[in-house]
Amino acid sequence: MISQKIKSISVIIPCYNEEKNAYRNIVYIRNFLEKNFPDYEIIAIDDGSTDNTRGELTRLSKNPDASIKIISKPSNEGKGAAVTKGVLASQKEIIMFLDADLAIPIEELPKFVTEINRGNDVVIASRFIAKIKVLKPILWYRSLMEKIFRILRMIIINNYEIRDTQCGFKVFRREAALRIFPLLTVKRFSFDAEAIFLAKKMGFAIKELPVTLQNPRESHIRIFADSWNMFWDLFKIRLNEKRGKYNIPE
């Protein structure tokens, strides 16, 4: 059992065409949570998958011992929309999301909980700080995209303090998550940047932590289409702020 003041956790797992990983990895996550948290829930969201992801998730929901909720979306809207739906359906003290392929192992969670207990509101994994451990190297084109996006994100939305907004392992204090996620407008991969941008604007304490990375060989990222969408979404975030769409008191 993790030594912690936090007693309950909601784990959000967005799934798009994850039939190879969904059942096995969510069972693995459930077993970890069972040993470490007295109260937990797993919310898996099928984001309009075109393979048998929904069938694999349905298998999980039939297990009476698992605190697993399944949300099925009829069409693919994007990771941001899926995570937001899961967050708004959650009920526990802290809320986290991670990728179904376990690119970052669930065993990293205890140190994130420790930082929440120390008073941080948002604790995020980072690939650009010391002590990160890479077990499998990232695909070259994803590495290039990440570096370019990082520079553009810093410039366009003036977010220099946070080194990495895009790593898919984040933990939120419930109060922070429920203020941030209802305001998100980005539905796809840049939603992380918007969430951290809003967290910073709202004055929440944010902590970045190094993690172990085991980068998968397969990726759902489309090099050209998603690069353009992520670039445009950064401008959208800046435009939203200028127009007062977020309505955050100064």
How do the strands and helices of this protein lay out in sequence?
Elements: E1 8-15, H1 22-36, E2 39-47, H2 53-61, E3 68-73, H3 79-89, E4 94-98, H4 109-117, E5 122-126, E6 133-136, H5 140-156, E7 169-173, H6 174-180, H7 191-201, E8 206-210, E9 212-214, H8 223-242
Parallel strand pairs: 1-2, 1-4, 2-3, 5-8, 6-9
Antiparallel strand pairs: 4-7, 5-7
Helix pairs in contact: 1-2, 5-8
Structure in a nutshell:
This protein has helices at 22-36, 53-61, 79-89, 109-117, 140-156, 174-180, 191-201, 223-242; strands at 8-15, 39-47, 68-73, 94-98, 122-126, 133-136, 169-173, 206-210, 212-214.
Question: How is this structure best described in words?
Answer:
This protein has 250 residues and is of the alpha/beta class. Helix content is 40%, strand content 20%. The chain has eight helices and nine strands. It has helices at residues 22-36, 53-61, 79-89, 109-117, 140-156, 174-180, 191-201, 223-242, and strands at 8-15, 39-47, 68-73, 94-98, 122-126, 133-136, 169-173, 206-210, 212-214. The strands form two sheets. The chain has a seven-stranded mixed beta sheet, sandwiched between helices. Strands 6-9 form a two-stranded parallel ribbon. Strand 1 (8-15), helix 1 and strand 2 (39-47) form a beta-alpha-beta unit. Helix 1 packs parallel to helix 2 (53-61) and helix 5 (140-156) packs parallel to helix 8. The mean pLDDT is 89.
